[in-house]
Amino acid sequence: MAIKIVGLIIGILILGVGVYYLAKEITDKESKKIYTITSVVGALIDVTCAALLFL
Asked: 45 with 14: CB under 8 angstroms?
């Protein structure tokens, strides 16, 4: 259970960093692509850990 909570926190942090830098570097196409992928990975980690935690 502790691993799932830690995974959830890490996913939230990755998602937050991705969204922050995506908003900061909105004009650069290459950065936009990288930070979008980072945000999606963070969201997938969050969804997976949340599903495992609550099921």
From this structure: yes
